[in-house]
Specification:
4 copies of one chain form a homotetramer. Chain A is α+β, with helices and mostly antiparallel strands. Chain A has 5 helices and 8 strands. In chain A, helix 4 (149-162) links the parallel strand 6 and strand 7.
Amino acid sequence: MYDINLFNQTADAISTVGSYLATRGWAPATSGNYSCRLNEQLVAITVSGKSKGELTRDDIMVVDLSAKAVGSNKKPSDEAMLHTSLYQHDAQIAAVLHTHSVYATVLSRYYASMGQMRLENYELLKVFSGNTTHDMEVLIPIFANSQDMQYLSAQVIDYLKHNPNIHGYLIVGHGLYTWGKSLADAKRHAEAWEFLFECELLHLKINGVLL
Amino acid sequence: MYDINLFNQTADAISTVGSYLATRGWAPATSGNYSCRLNEQLVAITVSGKSKGELTRDDIMVVDLSAKAVGSNKKPSDEAMLHTSLYQHDAQIAAVLHTHSVYATVLSRYYASMGQMRLENYELLKVFSGNTTHDMEVLIPIFANSQDMQYLSAQVIDYLKHNPNIHGYLIVGHGLYTWGKSLADAKRHAEAWEFLFECELLHLKINGVLL
Amino acid sequence: MYDINLFNQTADAISTVGSYLATRGWAPATSGNYSCRLNEQLVAITVSGKSKGELTRDDIMVVDLSAKAVGSNKKPSDEAMLHTSLYQHDAQIAAVLHTHSVYATVLSRYYASMGQMRLENYELLKVFSGNTTHDMEVLIPIFANSQDMQYLSAQVIDYLKHNPNIHGYLIVGHGLYTWGKSLADAKRHAEAWEFLFECELLHLKINGVLL
Amino acid sequence: MYDINLFNQTADAISTVGSYLATRGWAPATSGNYSCRLNEQLVAITVSGKSKGELTRDDIMVVDLSAKAVGSNKKPSDEAMLHTSLYQHDAQIAAVLHTHSVYATVLSRYYASMGQMRLENYELLKVFSGNTTHDMEVLIPIFANSQDMQYLSAQVIDYLKHNPNIHGYLIVGHGLYTWGKSLADAKRHAEAWEFLFECELLHLKINGVLL
């Protein structure tokens, strides 16, 4: 199965990141969910409905890659499948973070009909793993919101299979999913996306044009 | 009457929530007031004029459901009747929070003439007790401000009797009242409303149209 | 002269308020200055050029009502005379706070040519000492910025002599002066003004009209 | 070489400033870098890729004025040369801070084609070393972003040689460089710039015109 010490360390690391993300205002009203890979088959993930700024080990559980509870009868986040399908899709993904910020919510609705947002001319684009310059274009796809996680995760994975070098996606009115090769990577990506969303929204407001 | 241990626990819980709400900027200049049901007849509520980020047990008092002080001669918040009329109206309400944020203030004035604000396409709508999808419409009524609490509370209760599934209301230029079946529920609702108000205001600004 | 214990208590109270105001972002880059009356002749006031979030007793000094140092050769804030002229003008004033926020700065420039800003329909107007309803109008005068403190303080006091019930003023591109019958009063007023400035600016942005 | 106690003190001072700047949101996703002069030849500077809110002595290294590592094989920030060229240019510069804020990012893009931003009518202009009044104009040059640090630093130094009394510059989509005769000076300047950028952006939004 999994090593209990590894689980405890992982749960504590998730709690620390959760506390940071909540302080930034990116987890209002128990929204958001976070996970970390334990091994090839198992994932530690936040349980459903907890306040993300005050997570304890009890608020983290283990699921397999089909999002079924392992070793407990806790209820994983409704969106656990959005996490596990990413781990299934790419063996290099070690952590997935879903934040729920004002900027991601508003921008995802603004660009909903275009199905994506294009970011360029930001130094911070270098932050995404593999990028070495600001002089490029970063795309983030935007999916319609749905309560059908099977459908939504299938859409996401299908998109990822056809589009390499994607570091996150938005769900309309719902927020950001991003990931990384470690929890630190995923956290850095979340910070970068949220910064870029805030920039892009201000940019839209003073320039006053779409596209 | 009431159990002193229950009162102390409740007062401490209100102080903790108050400290959180004040840190978020939702209780400027001693504004806001908070209450929790102690039993069928009595309510613990913040006294008038205190800084909401630094509440002690001394700053919480007991009132009956007509907002009269019980067991002390402290002065309850001017708006105590807005709390107690809710407890009278619905036996399931266990906590009431009144926040006073910039976004609620500005939006309540913007939509004042419509008497309500309509929210849709937000995942966070699921947060309100009883909702299970984002694919719905949530209404929040907006009442004209008044210093006549008897008149204002009568208006609110009359509205609630004719409109089920209401989770909060706005007073013009004054802020939000929301509630729940527990203090944690009410706090989650307050966080959700304030998040949605901020989203809605940004949404208005980049889309530039009313309705 | 003055009681050293009273000075120490007052200095500590000013430091606590300073730390709060700095945390709110209302004292960037050593801006802002704060004072408290010690007795009919003397005032405790922040010295020049200190970071307002980390004040110690050493950063507070005593001046007389003409803003001259008493009992030390420390240099008072350049704007000490704006404080002392208020204490001279009104024996009831016990504390004066000058905050330097983004919102006050931007609004004071926007309304500069009108010489005042008019606030109405805000519940928070009740916060100013003596007000009992939101159903009123609160005026805040706006003075052109100047490095000539004698000239500027004369203008302010002349205005106050002809206009009763004024609780603060703005200097263009420079920020807010407000006061109260105690330090707690002045702090409550500062919080109320800054909240109202933020509301008014958002209100302007979504309604898009001046006046 | 350099005194280890001086290095340790300097590293701790940089960490303290870094923690403050990160808390303000000016160092998202490991962005930003900070340095302090140790003596005429050597500089303490943050290493590459660290989270700026949690710097330890290990995250600070020594470089010479050509940005080469001294006494360690750590990798300095990619932008170390932007720091060291400033120390070479002006013997009075004792600290350099590069912040990466939303406001600096958005404004630097907005004014990119003009190559500079002009600030006037702000009391806070007095904060920059040598200024004694608000009644003046402060220019901040804006350079196109580049990953070629040799080219970028040559452009900056050439500009500074021809323009006295410059206290900072912007790189498009990338943020602020500012400096001072001490770390405290540089921090005060960073705070002033970031405050002025936020003011200028709000000013643009409510006045709705460029220039």
